[in-house]
Amino acid sequence: MTGKTPTAAAIAAELQATGRRVIRTGTGDASSLYEAGVQGARVLYACADDSTDSSINVLTAATASRARRARKAGPLAVYAQVSDPAYALALRARHLSQPNTGSDFFNTDELAARELVRRDAATFEDAVPHVVIAGLGAFGQALVVELARMWQLSPRCGERLSVTLVDPAAEMIADDLRRRWPAVVQSCLLRPFSGDLRTAVDDESVPPHRTYLCFDDEDTSVLAALTLAPLWRGGPRSLVLRLDRLARLVEVFGQDSTSLLDDIEGQLWPISVGSLLFNVTPGESGTIHEDIYERLAQSIHHIYLQRRLAQGGRLGDTAAMVPWERLDAGFREANLQQARNIGAKLIELGCTVAPRTGTGLDRIDDTLIESLAVAEHDRWMAERISQGWRFGEVRDDRAKLHPSIKPWDELSEAERDKDRDVVRDIPLVLADYGLQVVRLTPPGGTPPTK
């Protein structure tokens, strides 16, 4: 592990707590990595402070990836911290078509926001559909996106989640969020407020379900939590205080005799970014290890759930109608294989991906879909056969029988449409992750070779 940052410390502590050996080095040059034993390591975390050099961890990742491996060491997974979320997304876009999986460029604020919403999603089922987000840095913006995606699968998705955004640049950021994230447009009513937080809260007639204090200046967030009494009327854990530099303050607040400060009778919920980087469920490796392929696989499943719910299905109806966290390993792997093939499909289309701006391709030309749909069916069938499945007139998951394990020419149109939809859905899947399809060659042109 490289770097002496709060992120590096949090990751190291979690790994050591689970019995894994961690060797830390301050720098990520080739000689330092070699002395630390990168040639035999299973995972490298590049977590140096990139505030003055945005590419420092990217270069460390590249250096480690090129290092000669010890005999029988196996592949090296590399996770590089990138503090600028736009830069991190652009790097993931360029990594999408590469064959090496198990590596990623991660942004801690995005990961923490995602995990916070995951852990807290159940409390929204019967809550007032309204939140306040104060401070629209990387964490605050990521919260908007993750809340929107959560709300898409909510039993109350027919009504939109009201989100008050408090920030001097709230209007501009709200416009950018609507342009870049389809989930935000579909699920959220954004109410940008460029004034101060006290005025924004005083204007609320009903206490929001959650008020998130996410100012980049954490002292401002702490002072607001301790002095703005109107924030204290939302109920248990309604006032979320995001901390990173001041993460040790999380331990200061509480209700028992060992706590130095009162947590406002349980209303204040201080959380540290570091504590959200790993899941607490035994056997889970944590959000930090979800590379771009797994995130796209989650998007594929997310879109599937949305469609089924719109058709009248309900969560829990079938083994596949469950959130990603509860999805069977076999279904997860099928989605992962589909995600890993997206880059190859885009190359065949003469396209690539870029961070979403709203100006990319929203749909794939129907004339290009058929051949890719045939290839998708062949890929799916080969994957199933390799797992022991075989043809059967009636699907039987336990016996591994499936009626679609047969040549394309023998499929019904309904079955063929499933493969066509996989291709048609590529722009939707990428948009759900903040990416868009960009054409590199004109329709009918020759795709670039790799």
Could you give a quick summary of the protein structure above?
The protein is of the alpha/beta class. The protein has helices spanning 6-17, 30-36, 56-66, 85-95, 108-120, 138-152, 170-180, 182-187, 197-202, 218-227, 292-310, 329-340, 342-348, 366-386, 413-424, 426-432; strands at 43-46, 77-81, 104-106, 130-134, 161-166, 188-193, 210-213, 239-243, 253-254, 261-262, 268-272, 351-355, 390-391, 401-402, 435-439.
Could you describe the 3D structure shown?
The protein has a 6-stranded parallel beta sheet. It is globular, with a radius of gyration of 23 Å. The protein contains 16 helices and 15 strands. α5 runs parallel beside α6 and α11 crosses α16. By secondary structure, it is of the alpha/beta class. The chain folds into 3 domains: 76 residues, no CATH class; 166 residues, NAD(P)-binding Rossmann-like Domain (Rossmann fold); 149 residues, Globin-like. 40% of the residues lie in helices and 14% in strands.
Q: What does the radius of gyration come to? A: 23 Å
Number of helices: 16
Order of strands across the biggest sheet? 6-5-4-7-8-11
Mean pLDDT: 87
Tell me the overall shape.
globular
**Helix content percent band:** 40-55%
Number of strands: 15
Strand content: 5-15%
CATH C-level category of the largest domain: Alpha Beta
CATH hierarchy: architecture of the largest domain? 3-Layer(aba) Sandwich
Determine the structural class based on helices, strands and strand pairing: alpha/beta
Largest sheet: 6 strands, parallel
Return the domain count: 3
Spatial separation of the terminal alpha carbons = 32 Å
CATH homologous superfamily placement of the largest domain: NAD(P)-binding Rossmann-like Domain
CATH topology of the largest domain: Rossmann fold
Poorly predicted ranges (pLDDT <50, ≥5 residues)? none
Pfam families: RyR (PF02026)
Domain Ryanodine receptor Ryr: 365-437
InterPro entries: Ryanodine_rcpt (IPR003032)
Protein name: RyR domain-containing protein
